[in-house]
Amino acid sequence: MSKAQNATQEFLDTNQYSRNSILRYESVYGTDFVSPGGRQYAL
Fold first, then answer.
1. Distances from the Cα of 31 to the Cαs of 1, 2, 21, in angstroms?
2. Taking residues 23-31, what's their average pLDDT?
């Protein structure tokens, strides 16, 4: 994995998909929005 890919993955792991970020998405778009498949794939 390249240095840029590592930086991107680190951002996603620590920010984009952090608990607070997911709760923020859900407050705007509804429960389970972050999962493209919705509830059936998120659980």
1. 33, 34, 13
2. 83
